[in-house]
Amino acid sequence: MHYAIILYSIPTLGIRETARMVFDDVEGRIGKVFKEVEVEKNRLISNRDCVGLKVEANDDKIEKISDVVFEWLKEAEILLQEVDNLTLQDRMQQWNEFRKLLKKLTALNAKCEFDPFSTPIPSLEHFSSGNIVCFESRDKTSDQLLEALQDDNCSIIGLYGREGYGKTTLVKAMAEKVKYLKIFHKVLFATVSQNPNIRTIQKEIADSLDMKFDKNSEAGRARRIFSAIETMYRPVLVIFDDVQMKFDPEDVGIPCKSNRCKILVTARCQQDCDLMQCQKSIQLCPLSKEEAWTLFGKYSGVHDEECSYSFELLNVAREVALECEGVPKLIKDVGISLQNKPIEEWKVSLGNLKHSMAKWQIFLSFRGEDTRYSFTGSLYHTLCQEGFKTFMDDGGLNTGDQISPSLLNAIEASRLSIIVLSENYASSSWCLDELVKILECMEVKKQLVWPIFYKVEPSDIRYLRKCYGKDMAQHESIFGIDSERVQKWKAALFEVCNLSGKTYTTGYEYEFIQKMVEDVNQIKGCIQIQNI
Protein backbone atom coordinates (compact mmCIF):
# COMPACT_ATOMS: atom_id res chain seq x y z
CA MET A 1 0.00 0.00 0.00
CA HIS A 2 2.79 2.38 0.96
CA TYR A 3 4.65 1.84 -2.30
CA ALA A 4 1.44 2.20 -4.41
CA ILE A 5 1.05 5.73 -3.03
CA ILE A 6 4.52 6.59 -4.18
CA LEU A 7 3.74 5.36 -7.70
CA TYR A 8 0.56 7.43 -8.07
CA SER A 9 1.91 10.50 -6.35
CA ILE A 10 4.70 10.97 -8.89
CA PRO A 11 2.91 10.63 -12.24
CA THR A 12 5.60 12.57 -14.11
CA LEU A 13 8.30 10.02 -13.36
CA GLY A 14 8.92 7.09 -15.61
CA ILE A 15 8.07 3.59 -14.44
CA ARG A 16 11.74 2.55 -14.31
CA GLU A 17 12.78 5.52 -12.23
CA THR A 18 9.89 4.97 -9.84
CA ALA A 19 10.70 1.23 -9.49
CA ARG A 20 14.31 2.12 -8.77
CA MET A 21 13.26 4.51 -6.02
CA VAL A 22 11.05 1.83 -4.49
CA PHE A 23 13.85 -0.75 -4.68
CA ASP A 24 16.40 1.66 -3.18
CA ASP A 25 14.01 2.43 -0.33
CA VAL A 26 13.44 -1.26 0.42
CA GLU A 27 17.13 -2.04 0.07
CA GLY A 28 17.93 0.80 2.45
CA ARG A 29 15.52 -0.50 5.05
CA ILE A 30 16.87 -4.07 4.74
CA GLY A 31 20.45 -2.78 4.83
CA LYS A 32 19.71 -0.88 8.01
CA VAL A 33 18.24 -3.99 9.65
CA PHE A 34 21.19 -6.04 8.43
CA LYS A 35 23.66 -3.57 9.93
CA GLU A 36 21.77 -3.60 13.22
CA VAL A 37 21.89 -7.41 13.17
CA GLU A 38 25.66 -7.25 12.62
CA VAL A 39 26.07 -4.84 15.53
CA GLU A 40 23.98 -7.01 17.88
CA LYS A 41 25.74 -10.14 16.64
CA ASN A 42 29.15 -8.65 17.49
CA ARG A 43 27.84 -7.57 20.87
CA LEU A 44 26.64 -11.11 21.51
CA ILE A 45 30.01 -12.56 20.53
CA SER A 46 31.71 -10.16 22.92
CA ASN A 47 29.25 -10.95 25.72
CA ARG A 48 29.60 -14.70 25.08
CA ASP A 49 33.39 -14.48 25.31
CA CYS A 50 33.22 -12.45 28.53
CA VAL A 51 30.82 -14.94 30.13
CA GLY A 52 32.98 -17.84 28.90
CA LEU A 53 36.11 -16.33 30.47
CA LYS A 54 34.25 -15.86 33.73
CA VAL A 55 33.18 -19.51 33.64
CA GLU A 56 36.80 -20.62 33.04
CA ALA A 57 38.05 -18.44 35.90
CA ASN A 58 35.53 -19.90 38.34
CA ASP A 59 36.95 -22.19 41.05
CA ASP A 60 34.68 -25.20 40.60
CA LYS A 61 35.85 -26.65 43.93
CA ILE A 62 34.08 -23.95 45.91
CA GLU A 63 31.59 -22.31 43.51
CA LYS A 64 28.82 -23.80 41.35
CA ILE A 65 27.91 -21.76 38.27
CA SER A 66 24.18 -21.13 37.95
CA ASP A 67 22.34 -23.27 35.40
CA VAL A 68 20.99 -20.14 33.65
CA VAL A 69 24.56 -19.20 32.68
CA PHE A 70 25.06 -22.43 30.73
CA GLU A 71 21.57 -22.15 29.25
CA TRP A 72 22.41 -18.59 28.07
CA LEU A 73 25.71 -19.72 26.53
CA LYS A 74 23.96 -22.57 24.72
CA GLU A 75 21.24 -20.23 23.42
CA ALA A 76 23.91 -17.74 22.27
CA GLU A 77 25.72 -20.40 20.23
CA ILE A 78 22.47 -21.50 18.56
CA LEU A 79 21.47 -17.92 17.73
CA LEU A 80 24.89 -17.03 16.31
CA GLN A 81 24.68 -20.06 14.06
CA GLU A 82 21.21 -18.95 12.87
CA VAL A 83 22.64 -15.51 11.97
CA ASP A 84 25.50 -17.07 10.02
CA ASN A 85 23.12 -19.36 8.15
CA LEU A 86 20.79 -16.48 7.23
CA THR A 87 23.49 -14.12 5.99
CA LEU A 88 24.37 -16.67 3.32
CA GLN A 89 20.90 -16.33 1.82
CA ASP A 90 19.26 -13.56 -0.26
CA ARG A 91 18.68 -10.52 1.93
CA MET A 92 15.58 -9.34 0.06
CA GLN A 93 13.76 -12.62 0.56
CA GLN A 94 14.72 -12.90 4.26
CA TRP A 95 13.89 -9.37 5.46
CA ASN A 96 11.27 -10.54 7.98
CA GLU A 97 13.66 -13.22 9.27
CA PHE A 98 16.34 -10.58 9.85
CA ARG A 99 13.87 -8.50 11.86
CA LYS A 100 13.02 -11.53 14.02
CA LEU A 101 16.70 -12.30 14.54
CA LEU A 102 17.37 -8.70 15.53
CA LYS A 103 14.76 -8.94 18.27
CA LYS A 104 16.24 -12.23 19.53
CA LEU A 105 19.80 -10.86 19.52
CA THR A 106 18.78 -7.69 21.33
CA ALA A 107 16.83 -9.66 23.95
CA LEU A 108 19.68 -12.16 24.56
CA ASN A 109 22.27 -9.38 24.88
CA ALA A 110 20.07 -7.78 27.51
CA LYS A 111 20.22 -11.00 29.58
CA CYS A 112 24.02 -11.34 29.78
CA GLU A 113 24.17 -10.18 33.41
CA PHE A 114 23.49 -12.93 35.94
CA ASP A 115 22.55 -12.60 39.57
CA PRO A 116 23.88 -14.79 41.00
CA PHE A 117 26.51 -15.91 38.51
CA SER A 118 27.56 -18.70 40.91
CA THR A 119 26.75 -19.97 44.37
CA PRO A 120 29.03 -21.47 47.06
CA ILE A 121 29.16 -25.28 47.01
CA PRO A 122 28.08 -26.66 50.41
CA SER A 123 30.68 -28.50 52.46
CA LEU A 124 31.06 -32.28 52.62
CA GLU A 125 29.60 -32.05 56.10
CA HIS A 126 26.38 -30.80 54.50
CA PHE A 127 26.29 -33.62 51.94
CA SER A 128 26.98 -36.22 54.65
CA SER A 129 24.21 -34.90 56.93
CA GLY A 130 26.84 -34.08 59.55
CA ASN A 131 28.59 -37.47 59.48
CA ILE A 132 31.83 -35.94 58.14
CA VAL A 133 33.76 -33.16 59.87
CA CYS A 134 35.48 -30.91 57.33
CA PHE A 135 39.12 -31.60 58.09
CA GLU A 136 41.93 -30.74 55.68
CA SER A 137 42.77 -34.43 55.13
CA ARG A 138 39.18 -35.23 54.11
CA ASP A 139 38.84 -32.13 51.93
CA LYS A 140 42.06 -33.05 50.11
CA THR A 141 40.83 -36.59 49.41
CA SER A 142 37.40 -35.38 48.26
CA ASP A 143 39.06 -32.89 45.88
CA GLN A 144 41.14 -35.74 44.41
CA LEU A 145 38.01 -37.86 44.01
CA LEU A 146 36.10 -35.06 42.31
CA GLU A 147 38.98 -34.42 39.90
CA ALA A 148 39.19 -38.14 39.03
CA LEU A 149 35.41 -38.38 38.55
CA GLN A 150 35.59 -35.53 36.03
CA ASP A 151 38.60 -37.00 34.20
CA ASP A 152 37.55 -38.53 30.88
CA ASN A 153 40.59 -40.84 31.00
CA CYS A 154 39.45 -42.50 34.26
CA SER A 155 36.57 -44.95 33.97
CA ILE A 156 37.36 -46.92 37.15
CA ILE A 157 38.56 -45.09 40.28
CA GLY A 158 39.68 -46.63 43.57
CA LEU A 159 39.52 -45.25 47.11
CA TYR A 160 41.44 -47.32 49.63
CA GLY A 161 42.16 -47.10 53.34
CA ARG A 162 41.99 -49.03 56.57
CA GLU A 163 38.66 -50.22 57.98
CA GLY A 164 37.04 -47.47 60.03
CA TYR A 165 38.66 -44.59 58.11
CA GLY A 166 35.25 -43.55 56.73
CA LYS A 167 35.46 -44.63 53.08
CA THR A 168 31.77 -45.51 52.81
CA THR A 169 30.69 -42.27 54.50
CA LEU A 170 32.94 -40.27 52.18
CA VAL A 171 31.78 -41.85 48.91
CA LYS A 172 28.12 -41.50 49.93
CA ALA A 173 28.71 -37.80 50.60
CA MET A 174 30.53 -37.51 47.26
CA ALA A 175 27.54 -39.19 45.58
CA GLU A 176 25.28 -36.42 46.86
CA LYS A 177 27.79 -33.78 45.81
CA VAL A 178 28.16 -34.98 42.19
CA LYS A 179 24.37 -35.15 41.88
CA TYR A 180 24.14 -31.57 43.17
CA LEU A 181 26.78 -30.51 40.64
CA LYS A 182 24.88 -32.41 37.91
CA ILE A 183 28.00 -34.35 36.89
CA PHE A 184 26.03 -37.59 36.97
CA HIS A 185 22.39 -38.33 36.28
CA LYS A 186 22.19 -41.14 38.84
CA VAL A 187 24.38 -42.79 41.47
CA LEU A 188 24.03 -46.56 41.89
CA PHE A 189 25.37 -48.17 45.08
CA ALA A 190 26.15 -51.80 45.94
CA THR A 191 28.09 -53.43 48.79
CA VAL A 192 30.46 -56.16 47.58
CA SER A 193 32.44 -57.39 50.66
CA GLN A 194 34.51 -60.57 50.85
CA ASN A 195 32.69 -62.97 48.54
CA PRO A 196 31.04 -61.08 45.66
CA ASN A 197 27.55 -62.42 44.94
CA ILE A 198 26.58 -61.23 41.46
CA ARG A 199 22.83 -61.72 41.96
CA THR A 200 22.85 -59.76 45.24
CA ILE A 201 24.83 -56.92 43.64
CA GLN A 202 22.45 -56.89 40.66
CA LYS A 203 19.49 -56.60 43.02
CA GLU A 204 21.02 -53.58 44.79
CA ILE A 205 21.73 -51.91 41.44
CA ALA A 206 18.19 -52.66 40.23
CA ASP A 207 16.72 -51.13 43.39
CA SER A 208 18.68 -47.92 42.68
CA LEU A 209 17.26 -47.92 39.14
CA ASP A 210 13.68 -48.70 40.32
CA MET A 211 13.89 -51.74 38.09
CA LYS A 212 12.09 -55.08 38.31
CA PHE A 213 13.71 -58.05 36.60
CA ASP A 214 11.64 -60.06 34.13
CA LYS A 215 14.52 -62.52 33.61
CA ASN A 216 15.96 -64.78 36.28
CA SER A 217 19.40 -65.56 34.84
CA GLU A 218 22.43 -63.45 35.79
CA ALA A 219 23.21 -62.84 32.11
CA GLY A 220 19.64 -61.68 31.42
CA ARG A 221 19.70 -59.33 34.40
CA ALA A 222 23.09 -57.99 33.31
CA ARG A 223 21.74 -57.16 29.82
CA ARG A 224 18.78 -55.33 31.36
CA ILE A 225 21.01 -53.22 33.65
CA PHE A 226 23.46 -52.53 30.79
CA SER A 227 20.64 -51.35 28.51
CA ALA A 228 19.18 -49.08 31.20
CA ILE A 229 22.54 -47.36 31.78
CA GLU A 230 23.34 -46.94 28.08
CA THR A 231 20.01 -45.20 27.38
CA MET A 232 20.33 -42.56 30.11
CA TYR A 233 20.81 -39.01 28.84
CA ARG A 234 23.62 -38.20 31.30
CA PRO A 235 26.43 -40.41 32.70
CA VAL A 236 25.88 -42.69 35.70
CA LEU A 237 28.19 -43.25 38.68
CA VAL A 238 28.33 -46.80 40.10
CA ILE A 239 29.84 -47.27 43.57
CA PHE A 240 31.07 -50.73 44.59
CA ASP A 241 31.72 -50.54 48.32
CA ASP A 242 34.16 -52.66 50.37
CA VAL A 243 35.66 -54.68 47.50
CA GLN A 244 37.89 -57.40 48.95
CA MET A 245 38.08 -59.74 45.98
CA LYS A 246 38.28 -59.27 42.22
CA PHE A 247 35.11 -59.52 40.15
CA ASP A 248 34.04 -58.31 36.70
CA PRO A 249 31.55 -55.38 36.80
CA GLU A 250 30.32 -56.42 33.34
CA ASP A 251 29.00 -59.66 34.89
CA VAL A 252 26.70 -57.39 36.89
CA GLY A 253 25.75 -55.38 33.81
CA ILE A 254 27.97 -52.34 34.41
CA PRO A 255 29.86 -51.18 31.29
CA CYS A 256 33.56 -50.72 32.11
CA LYS A 257 34.64 -48.81 29.00
CA SER A 258 31.70 -46.55 28.28
CA ASN A 259 31.36 -42.78 28.41
CA ARG A 260 27.91 -43.39 29.91
CA CYS A 261 29.30 -44.78 33.16
CA LYS A 262 32.05 -44.38 35.76
CA ILE A 263 32.88 -46.85 38.52
CA LEU A 264 34.10 -45.91 42.01
CA VAL A 265 35.54 -48.76 44.10
CA THR A 266 36.28 -48.65 47.85
CA ALA A 267 38.79 -51.15 49.22
CA ARG A 268 41.03 -51.69 52.23
CA CYS A 269 44.33 -51.73 50.34
CA GLN A 270 45.76 -50.56 47.04
CA GLN A 271 46.22 -54.14 45.82
CA ASP A 272 42.44 -54.62 45.71
CA CYS A 273 42.14 -51.44 43.62
CA ASP A 274 44.83 -52.76 41.27
CA LEU A 275 42.96 -56.06 40.92
CA MET A 276 39.88 -54.10 39.86
CA GLN A 277 42.05 -52.34 37.22
CA CYS A 278 41.49 -48.85 38.62
CA GLN A 279 43.13 -46.19 36.45
CA LYS A 280 43.52 -44.00 39.52
CA SER A 281 43.78 -45.12 43.16
CA ILE A 282 43.36 -42.55 45.94
CA GLN A 283 44.41 -43.24 49.52
CA LEU A 284 42.23 -42.17 52.43
CA CYS A 285 44.73 -41.54 55.22
CA PRO A 286 44.14 -41.47 58.98
CA LEU A 287 43.33 -38.18 60.64
CA SER A 288 46.28 -36.08 61.75
CA LYS A 289 46.99 -35.77 65.49
CA GLU A 290 45.24 -32.42 65.75
CA GLU A 291 42.29 -33.54 63.60
CA ALA A 292 41.92 -36.64 65.81
CA TRP A 293 42.02 -34.50 68.95
CA THR A 294 39.40 -32.10 67.56
CA LEU A 295 37.08 -34.98 66.60
CA PHE A 296 37.65 -36.70 69.94
CA GLY A 297 36.74 -33.48 71.73
CA LYS A 298 33.50 -33.26 69.75
CA TYR A 299 32.34 -36.69 70.97
CA SER A 300 33.94 -36.87 74.43
CA GLY A 301 33.22 -33.28 75.45
CA VAL A 302 36.84 -32.74 76.59
CA HIS A 303 38.56 -29.68 75.11
CA ASP A 304 41.81 -27.80 75.76
CA GLU A 305 39.96 -24.56 76.30
CA GLU A 306 37.59 -26.05 78.89
CA CYS A 307 38.91 -24.97 82.31
CA SER A 308 36.81 -27.41 84.32
CA TYR A 309 38.99 -30.40 83.38
CA SER A 310 42.12 -31.27 85.34
CA PHE A 311 45.55 -31.23 83.75
CA GLU A 312 45.82 -34.98 84.37
CA LEU A 313 42.53 -35.75 82.61
CA LEU A 314 43.50 -33.63 79.60
CA ASN A 315 46.79 -35.53 79.31
CA VAL A 316 45.05 -38.91 79.53
CA ALA A 317 42.42 -37.75 77.02
CA ARG A 318 45.14 -36.73 74.55
CA GLU A 319 46.79 -40.13 74.95
CA VAL A 320 43.45 -41.88 74.37
CA ALA A 321 42.85 -39.84 71.21
CA LEU A 322 46.37 -40.69 70.01
CA GLU A 323 45.89 -44.42 70.63
CA CYS A 324 42.81 -44.33 68.36
CA GLU A 325 45.37 -44.01 65.52
CA GLY A 326 43.44 -41.45 63.52
CA VAL A 327 40.54 -43.85 62.87
CA PRO A 328 37.36 -41.69 62.86
CA LYS A 329 34.96 -44.51 63.79
CA LEU A 330 37.09 -45.60 66.75
CA ILE A 331 37.55 -41.99 67.88
CA LYS A 332 33.79 -41.46 67.83
CA ASP A 333 32.95 -44.70 69.67
CA VAL A 334 35.60 -44.23 72.37
CA GLY A 335 34.78 -40.54 72.80
CA ILE A 336 31.07 -41.21 73.33
CA SER A 337 31.79 -44.08 75.75
CA LEU A 338 33.94 -41.84 77.99
CA GLN A 339 31.61 -38.85 78.25
CA ASN A 340 31.36 -37.64 81.89
CA LYS A 341 33.30 -40.69 83.15
CA PRO A 342 35.80 -40.52 86.07
CA ILE A 343 39.51 -40.45 85.28
CA GLU A 344 39.90 -44.07 86.48
CA GLU A 345 37.74 -45.26 83.57
CA TRP A 346 39.74 -43.10 81.18
CA LYS A 347 42.95 -44.81 82.33
CA VAL A 348 41.44 -48.28 81.94
CA SER A 349 40.31 -47.38 78.41
CA LEU A 350 43.80 -46.06 77.61
CA GLY A 351 45.39 -49.31 78.77
CA ASN A 352 42.97 -51.38 76.71
CA LEU A 353 43.60 -49.29 73.60
CA LYS A 354 47.36 -49.61 73.91
CA HIS A 355 47.15 -53.38 73.62
CA SER A 356 43.86 -54.12 71.88
CA MET A 357 45.13 -53.84 68.31
CA ALA A 358 48.53 -55.48 68.76
CA LYS A 359 48.84 -59.18 67.95
CA TRP A 360 52.62 -59.31 67.62
CA GLN A 361 55.30 -57.86 69.83
CA ILE A 362 57.93 -57.82 67.09
CA PHE A 363 57.81 -57.74 63.27
CA LEU A 364 60.93 -58.70 61.31
CA SER A 365 61.48 -57.06 57.92
CA PHE A 366 64.29 -58.62 55.87
CA ARG A 367 65.42 -59.75 52.41
CA GLY A 368 64.82 -63.50 52.36
CA GLU A 369 67.63 -64.47 50.00
CA ASP A 370 70.16 -62.51 52.09
CA THR A 371 69.44 -63.48 55.71
CA ARG A 372 66.47 -65.86 56.09
CA TYR A 373 68.61 -68.89 56.85
CA SER A 374 71.38 -67.00 58.62
CA PHE A 375 71.20 -63.77 60.62
CA THR A 376 67.42 -63.13 60.59
CA GLY A 377 66.58 -66.80 61.11
CA SER A 378 68.83 -66.90 64.21
CA LEU A 379 67.41 -63.61 65.52
CA TYR A 380 63.85 -64.91 65.13
CA HIS A 381 64.70 -68.18 66.93
CA THR A 382 66.36 -66.35 69.86
CA LEU A 383 63.48 -63.86 70.25
CA CYS A 384 60.95 -66.68 70.33
CA GLN A 385 63.03 -68.56 72.93
CA GLU A 386 62.93 -65.43 75.09
CA GLY A 387 59.13 -65.52 74.89
CA PHE A 388 58.57 -62.65 72.45
CA LYS A 389 55.67 -63.11 70.05
CA THR A 390 57.53 -62.44 66.78
CA PHE A 391 56.28 -62.33 63.20
CA MET A 392 58.60 -63.59 60.47
CA ASP A 393 57.23 -64.08 56.94
CA ASP A 394 57.76 -67.64 55.77
CA GLY A 395 57.94 -66.49 52.15
CA GLY A 396 54.41 -67.54 51.21
CA LEU A 397 52.52 -64.31 51.83
CA ASN A 398 53.74 -62.30 48.84
CA THR A 399 52.79 -62.91 45.23
CA GLY A 400 53.41 -60.73 42.20
CA ASP A 401 55.07 -57.34 42.81
CA GLN A 402 52.73 -56.22 45.61
CA ILE A 403 53.00 -56.79 49.35
CA SER A 404 50.11 -58.96 50.57
CA PRO A 405 47.28 -57.61 52.79
CA SER A 406 48.19 -60.27 55.39
CA LEU A 407 51.69 -58.84 55.70
CA LEU A 408 50.35 -55.28 55.93
CA ASN A 409 48.03 -56.39 58.73
CA ALA A 410 50.93 -58.05 60.56
CA ILE A 411 52.92 -54.80 60.44
CA GLU A 412 49.95 -52.80 61.77
CA ALA A 413 49.41 -55.35 64.54
CA SER A 414 53.00 -55.21 65.87
CA ARG A 415 54.55 -53.08 68.61
CA LEU A 416 58.18 -53.12 67.41
CA SER A 417 59.57 -53.53 63.89
CA ILE A 418 63.16 -54.63 63.38
CA ILE A 419 64.38 -53.89 59.84
CA VAL A 420 67.38 -55.91 58.66
CA LEU A 421 68.85 -53.72 55.91
CA SER A 422 71.11 -56.06 53.97
CA GLU A 423 72.88 -55.76 50.61
CA ASN A 424 69.88 -56.77 48.45
CA TYR A 425 67.07 -55.37 50.62
CA ALA A 426 66.20 -52.63 48.10
CA SER A 427 66.06 -55.07 45.18
CA SER A 428 62.69 -56.30 46.50
CA SER A 429 59.60 -54.16 45.94
CA TRP A 430 57.97 -56.16 48.77
CA CYS A 431 60.69 -55.14 51.24
CA LEU A 432 60.41 -51.49 50.17
CA ASP A 433 56.62 -51.56 50.57
CA GLU A 434 57.13 -53.09 54.03
CA LEU A 435 59.52 -50.28 54.91
CA VAL A 436 57.05 -47.58 53.81
CA LYS A 437 54.29 -49.21 55.88
CA ILE A 438 56.52 -49.60 58.94
CA LEU A 439 57.49 -45.92 58.90
CA GLU A 440 53.85 -44.97 58.42
CA CYS A 441 52.95 -47.01 61.53
CA MET A 442 55.82 -45.38 63.41
CA GLU A 443 54.30 -41.98 62.67
CA VAL A 444 50.63 -42.79 63.10
CA LYS A 445 50.63 -45.62 65.65
CA LYS A 446 53.81 -44.63 67.53
CA GLN A 447 55.31 -48.05 66.90
CA LEU A 448 58.97 -48.60 67.73
CA VAL A 449 61.34 -49.08 64.79
CA TRP A 450 64.90 -50.43 65.03
CA PRO A 451 67.02 -50.59 61.85
CA ILE A 452 69.95 -53.01 61.66
CA PHE A 453 72.56 -52.15 59.01
CA TYR A 454 73.73 -55.65 58.18
CA LYS A 455 77.04 -55.48 56.31
CA VAL A 456 76.00 -52.20 54.63
CA GLU A 457 76.87 -48.56 55.25
CA PRO A 458 73.96 -46.28 56.27
CA SER A 459 75.33 -43.54 53.98
CA ASP A 460 75.13 -45.87 50.97
CA ILE A 461 71.44 -46.40 51.73
CA ARG A 462 70.72 -42.74 52.48
CA TYR A 463 72.30 -41.50 49.25
CA LEU A 464 71.46 -44.56 47.12
CA ARG A 465 74.98 -45.66 46.35
CA LYS A 466 76.40 -49.06 45.33
CA CYS A 467 73.76 -51.84 45.36
CA TYR A 468 71.02 -49.53 46.65
CA GLY A 469 71.60 -47.11 43.78
CA LYS A 470 71.58 -49.91 41.18
CA ASP A 471 68.41 -51.46 42.62
CA MET A 472 66.56 -48.14 42.68
CA ALA A 473 67.58 -47.43 39.08
CA GLN A 474 66.09 -50.80 38.14
CA HIS A 475 62.82 -49.93 39.91
CA GLU A 476 62.74 -46.55 38.11
CA SER A 477 63.05 -48.30 34.75
CA ILE A 478 60.09 -50.55 35.61
CA PHE A 479 57.73 -48.17 37.44
CA GLY A 480 58.94 -44.79 36.11
CA ILE A 481 61.31 -42.29 37.68
CA ASP A 482 58.40 -40.05 38.76
CA SER A 483 56.28 -42.93 40.04
CA GLU A 484 54.65 -42.12 43.38
CA ARG A 485 55.59 -45.58 44.62
CA VAL A 486 59.29 -45.10 43.76
CA GLN A 487 59.34 -41.67 45.38
CA LYS A 488 57.92 -43.16 48.59
CA TRP A 489 60.62 -45.84 48.57
CA LYS A 490 63.40 -43.27 48.20
CA ALA A 491 62.00 -41.12 51.02
CA ALA A 492 61.63 -44.18 53.27
CA LEU A 493 65.24 -45.30 52.71
CA PHE A 494 66.46 -41.81 53.51
CA GLU A 495 64.28 -41.59 56.64
CA VAL A 496 65.22 -45.00 58.05
CA CYS A 497 68.91 -44.01 57.97
CA ASN A 498 68.13 -41.11 60.29
CA LEU A 499 66.78 -43.44 62.97
CA SER A 500 68.89 -44.74 65.81
CA GLY A 501 70.00 -48.21 64.74
CA LYS A 502 72.73 -50.83 65.06
CA THR A 503 75.41 -51.74 62.55
CA TYR A 504 76.86 -55.23 62.05
CA THR A 505 79.94 -55.62 59.88
CA THR A 506 82.13 -58.45 61.26
CA GLY A 507 82.39 -60.66 64.33
CA TYR A 508 80.31 -63.41 65.86
CA GLU A 509 76.67 -62.99 64.79
CA TYR A 510 75.37 -64.84 67.86
CA GLU A 511 76.98 -62.24 70.15
CA PHE A 512 75.38 -59.39 68.17
CA ILE A 513 72.02 -61.17 68.28
CA GLN A 514 72.29 -61.78 72.03
CA LYS A 515 72.94 -58.06 72.58
CA MET A 516 69.89 -57.25 70.42
CA VAL A 517 67.67 -59.52 72.53
CA GLU A 518 68.99 -57.92 75.72
CA ASP A 519 68.01 -54.51 74.33
CA VAL A 520 64.53 -55.83 73.50
CA ASN A 521 64.20 -57.09 77.09
CA GLN A 522 64.95 -53.57 78.29
CA ILE A 523 61.77 -52.28 76.59
CA LYS A 524 59.63 -55.34 77.36
CA GLY A 525 57.03 -53.24 79.15
CA CYS A 526 56.54 -51.04 76.08
CA ILE A 527 55.75 -53.93 73.72
CA GLN A 528 53.42 -56.00 75.89
CA ILE A 529 50.26 -57.28 74.19
CA GLN A 530 47.12 -58.95 75.43
CA ASN A 531 46.91 -62.72 75.05
CA ILE A 532 44.77 -63.43 71.99
UniProtKB/TrEMBL annotation:
Alphabetized Pfam families for the sequence: NB-ARC, TIR
Keyword Cytoplasm among UniProt keywords: no
Record-level GO BP terms: defense response; signal transduction
Domain TIR residue range list: 358-524
Gene Ontology MF annotations: ADP binding
Keyword tags: NAD
PANTHER family: LEUCINE-RICH REPEAT-CONTAINING PROTEIN (PTHR11017), RESISTANCE PROTEIN (TIR-NBS-LRR CLASS), PUTATIVE-RELATED (PTHR11017:SF252)
Protein name: TIR domain-containing protein
